[in-house]
Design a protein that fits this description.
single chain, alpha/beta, Dihydrofolate Reductase, subunit A, eight-stranded mixed β-sheet, two-stranded antiparallel sheet, 29% strand, globular, DHFR-like_dom_sf, Riboflavin_Biosynth_HTPR, RibDG_C, Dihydrofolate reductase family protein
Length: 185
């Protein structure tokens, strides 16, 4: 059975999206980006909300940019190879391959995907992840914590949630970013 992983870059004070849109620094360098690519290479299905999909669709063509570094080209190839499900009531069409739109989040469909998949799945975006967390679907939480305190926005963990997590991996990067991987007990 596959795991469902929730992962995002988050501010030091726990916001996955800052009120002003800037989450802070720390994830821009090659060391971090290569690490993220290695962590998510085994993921073969990404679950996105509309806004997160619109951010991530950049990877559909990133490999074709002039002078693209090898680690960026590799991440683009990995992203293109994965299935993508976009949960949106407003999105009319998608601009990436292996992508489909679902109008509503269906926990039973995600349970079935997890049960039938040989590869892990990822849920991205704090609003969609909140639904998966509420349904008890998230198996691991991967936080990439920046050095910034942003003071408000959309929290990584939804308000009112209580979880018992076990730290299973951590890493500090020279940029100041900290990676923390937790497993649901």
């Amino acid at each position: 059975m596959a795991k469902l992983i929730y992962s995002m870059i988050t501010s030091l004070d726990g916001y996955a999206e800052a009120a002003n849109g800037d989450i802070g620094r720390g994830a821009e360098d090659q060391e971090v980006h290569s690490f993220i690519g290695d962590i998510f290479r085994p993921v073969r299905t990404f679950l996105y909300g509309r806004r997160m999909y619109e951010t991530m669709v950049f990877w559909e063509t990133a490999h074709a940019e002039p002078d693209v570094p090898p680690h960026i080209a590799q991440y683009a190839r990995d992203w293109q190879a994965a299935e993508k499900i976009v949960y949106s009531t407003t999105l009319e069409s998608v601009s990436s391959t292996k992508t489909r739109i679902q109008r509503t989040f269906d926990p039973e469909m995600v349970r079935k995907l997890k049960a039938e998949s040989d590869h892990d799945l990822s849920v991205d975006g704090p609003h969609l992840a909140a639904q998966a967390i509420a349904a008890g679907l998230v198996d691991e939480y991967h936080l990439f914590i920046t050095t910034s305190v942003v003071g408000g926005g959309n929290r990584f963990f939804p308000t009112g949630v209580r979880l018992d997590l076990e730290l299973v991996q951590e890493r500090a990067f020279s940029s100041g970013l900290i990676y923390a991987r937790y497993r649901t007990r």
